[in-house]
Amino acid sequence: MKLLDISEVARQSGVAASALRHYEEKGLIHSAGRRGLKRLFGPEVLDQLAVIRLGKAAGFSLVEIKGMFGPDGRPSLSRSVLRTKADDLDDQIARLTSLRDMIRHVANCPAPRHIECPKFQKLIRISARRSAVKPGKF
User: Fold this and answer.
1) DSSP 88
2) CB 9 within 8 A of CB 46
3) Which residues 6+ apart lie within 8 Å of 40 measured at CB?
4) What PANTHER family does the record tag this protein with (predicted)?
5) DSSP state of 5
6) Is residue 102 part of a domain?
7) Which of 43, 62, 73, 108 is the most exposed place for a label (fewest CB within 10 A)?
8) Are residues 11 and 64 both part of a single domain?
9) How far is CA 100 from CA 16, 82, 132, in A?
10) Got the DSSP string for 27-53?
């Protein structure tokens, strides 16, 4: 098994060496040893990093991503967790699509002032309602 030093892993994966050290500190990846001061990794780390990248893109936290790996370091994905995340993403897409459409309307609205636009007023009411229910979320 050919070991890759941290700079080679960074080059092949596109993940900064500092992020690799962070992922190792958090237990997401494991080095196989050192050559001088450089960490060495097995080639499987490239697949692990691809899973980490996908998990982050989907909105999983590093703690959640860590749980996606079995004791052997191989992906062990919970289908129910993935289904729940997919449903969450569907909800987020629907909210963002609605928001985009409203903003686009307001940007092109023929009303002399935005506040006179019924859709803009609706957007303000929706925003106020969501802020009151879920702080920090739109």
Assistant:
1) H
2) yes
3) 3, 4, 5, 6, 31, 32, 33, 34
4) MERR FAMILY REGULATORY PROTEIN, REDOX-CYCLING DRUG-SENSING TRANSCRIPTIONAL ACTIVATOR SOXR
5) E
6) yes
7) 108
8) yes
9) 33, 26, 21
10) TSS---EEETTEEEE-TTHHHHHHHHH
Of 21, 37, 68, the last residue of a domain is 68
Whether residues 51 and 11 share a domain: the answer is yes
Tokens matching residue 111: 């009303």
Would you list the DSSP string of 99-125? HHHHHHHHHH--SSSGGG-HHHHHHHH
Tell me if 15 sits within 8 A of 54, measured CB to CB: no
Alpha-carbon span 63 to 65, nearest angstrom:
5
State pTM to two decimals.
0.74
> Which range of residues forms the domain containing residue 95?
79-131
Q: Give the Cβ contact number of residue 93 at 10 Å.
A: 10
Domain-embedded: residue 61: yes
Q: For the domain that residue 40 is a member of, what is the CATH number?
A: 1.10.1660.10
pLDDT tens for residues 115-131? 888 888 887 887 778 76
Mean pLDDT of 76-96: 93
β-strands 38-41, 4-5: how paired?
antiparallel
Q: Cα separation of 114 and 44, whole Å? A: 55
